[in-house]
Amino acid sequence: MRTLTAGRPYPLGVTVDALGANFALFSAHAEKVELCLFDPQGRREIERITLPENSEGVWHGYLSETRPGQLYGYRVHGPYAPEAGHRFNPHKLLLDPYGRELNAPLVLSDLHFGYRVANPRGDLSLDRRDNARVMPKCRIVDESFPWSDDKRPHRPWRDTVIYEMHVGGFTRQLPHVNGATRGTFGALRSRAAIDHLLRLGITAVELLPVQATVDDRHLIERGLHNYWGYNTIGFFAPDRRFLGPGDHQEFKHMVAALHAAGIEVILDVVYNHTAEGNHLGPTLSFRGIDNATYYWLSPQEQRYYADFTGCGNSLCVMRPRVLQMVIDSLRYWVEVMHVDGFRFDLASTLARGLGGFDVNAPFLDVIGQDPVLSQVKLIAEPWDLGEGGYQVGNFSPGWSEWNDRFRDTMRRFWRGDGGVIGEAAARIAGSADIYGHHGRHPRASINFITAHDGFTLQDLVSYDGKHNEANQENNADGTSENLSWNCGVEGPSDDAAIIALRRQQRRNFLASLLLAQGVPMLLAGDEIANSQNGNNNVYCQDNEIGWIDWSRLGVDGDDLSDFVARLITMRRVHGLSLDHFPVGKGHRHTGRTEMLWFRADGEEMKEPDWAFPDARFLAVVLDTEPEPALMLLNGHYEPLKIVLPRSSGIGVWRMTIDTTKPTGLTAGQLEAGQEFEMPLRSLILAFGEAA
Predict the structure, then answer these.
(1) Radius of gyration (Cα) for the chain, nearest Å?
(2) DSSP secondary structure string, 619-641?
(3) Rounded to 10 degrees, what is the CA torsion of 323, 327, 332, 337?
(4) What are phi and psi for residue 54, nearest 5 degrees?
(5) pLDDT averaged over consecutive 10-residue blocks of the chain (691 residues)?
(6) Prior bond of 626 cis (ω within 30°)
(7) 3-state SS of the chain: helix, strand, coil percent to 5?
(8) CA distance 464 to 449
């Protein structure tokens, strides 16, 4: 017979031992907390137990004879007073914020809403209908796993090449993958998936959100789904979409397989908001547990939320217990699930205080001193939608950041815009103007041309405007500022000249990304000309539009896998990635010059040269070991006569990369000081040999 005792308030969530399980739930404003146990199918509530103790806001109890596999949820009693920020409703079964696994996907229903009648002001009467029948339940899990031979790759930042992907989109149509596992963690650990990553030379995969998420009701009504998953409801539970017929251990099997191949796993995580939406959203977990603690509320009217995210609410991570949940979640994914790092969606929200973004915010300070989290890869998306939210370059030492200025500058350069060579040079050199402070290094800059949010690389060179009609929002969603160029025709073309130019532009973008200082991030599928038909916001397209089309794999001109692999190998073997910002014009202590910029006539750049409005050419020599490297970039729409620079006693330059070639590869050598005609819109990489 089960017995209930006081148990203990720490750790939060469910802790299982040989005799039973301890349950602990934080709610500062609750008046009573009930633990609800369900049958194995989750259809029938078999027991309802009031947690007997409240220790400083943590409600807890120990229940004997409770084992892994048990399904449970909570009902939390307290005031229903939206005007005071409280939205308790014990008629709604709630998910444990620390739940490790959900027994089913969460599908929105009228029963999940805590109010009965909605109106624009949010003056809502309590909905007394019970939602347990349609609510997923948390499952107590056995965390044991044979990790004994798992070795974390611990890749140095200077050797890191990131590949951003959606687990489902990458594997749904991947050849040679078992049909039953397509779209799941199981498919990502398949031989086909790992072989492709290894062929490219990828060292880390950055996975779009894999924590438990919710489909937006408005999408379901239109026959769509929240494909990307930036709508989290469970920060400890893997999303059921990716588990297939398995359980949460599927994630661990995937990590172990990727680690065995030397590939790190970085998670894109969404701690800035939850799936409960605005004041008219459903009551699923946090809102019903302690709305006034978990969320930023409007200081004018607490029935409403302060929304820095554009998603209806913002988690108030400055509050100690909310911060504790986020830190506990991060540590769980590192210590129990063995991930190697995180990319934080809208990270500026996490560092907000009462006065806005704060570089000394509790979230940043706690992670910076945490012995576990401070040692993994930390990447910020350094902006949100609130006032003062754009914070590129302002995160703490130890953090890397998505560098959208690299993206925008390189897009403008290869589009042929004039007057951007100074900014382009700064981006290629690692963006010291943004990150060169407080001891930060080029690894602070995560360089990218494309990402999940926006055009693919193929679409970047094929469309001048977005084509998001399939999203059923009148093409009003997604950014209109793409800095793209369609090479003369909007969309697909059978014109051989346009096809060739688009392929050349793709090679230009990939080469400038992989040869720049900083950490390169590739978008999955860009190496094989994957297209989304001009849709730059496929957040709701869990179909062929959003999935990678692997039919282009192996197609001459479209498949640039070998070209990417060659660039990544050169980057590593020739030491083209530095762990410090390259020195120009002589280091004050060593006298060494690591990076020099040259004009088209072969002479060193002078200050006035950077301001020339029609300049579209860059030449840079990087003094690397074992031999200097020369990169030439001509963004002009016409060929350009140039003189190869004389530098560091170089006699000849040995050509290796030429983006005008169908393969992107070349051979041969030219003498230093020799004049030759550089083709339009092209990039050349050469290595120097002494005279």
Answers:
(1) 27
(2) EEEE--SSS-EEEEEE-SSS-EE
(3) 120
(4) -130, 110
(5) 95 98 98 98 97 98 98 98 96 98 94 79 79 97 92 96 98 95 98 98 98 94 96 98 93 98 98 97 97 97 96 97 98 98 98 95 97 98 96 97 98 97 98 96 98 98 98 97 98 98 98 98 98 98 98 96 98 95 70 88 95 95 92 97 90 97 95 96 96 79
(6) yes
(7) 25, 20, 50
(8) 16
Cα 236 from Cα 285, distance rounded (Å): 13
The closest of 355, 416, 469 to 615, measured between CA atoms, is 416
Does the annotation mark 130 as catalytic? no
The active-site residue out of 345, 384, 459, 526 is 345
- Sequence-ordered list of residues with C-beta below 8 angstroms from that of 617, at least 6 positions apart, any chain: 421, 599, 600, 632, 633, 634, 635, 636, 640, 642, 678
DSSP string computed for 51-100: --EEETTEEEEEEES--TT-EEEEEEE--EEGGGTEE--TTS-B--TT-S
Query: Which residue is catalytic, options 239, 247, 340, 381?
Result: 381
Buried b (16+ CB within 10 A) or exposed e, 26-58: bbbbbeebbbbbbeeebeebeeebebebbeebb
**Do 94 and 73 contact (CB within 8 A), yes or no?**
yes
Cα separation, 380 vs 391, in Å, equals 10
Q: Is 345 a catalytic residue?
A: yes
Q: Is the peptide bond before 105 cis (omega within 30 degrees of 0)?
A: no
Burial of 341 (0-12, 13-18, 19+ CB in 10 A): buried
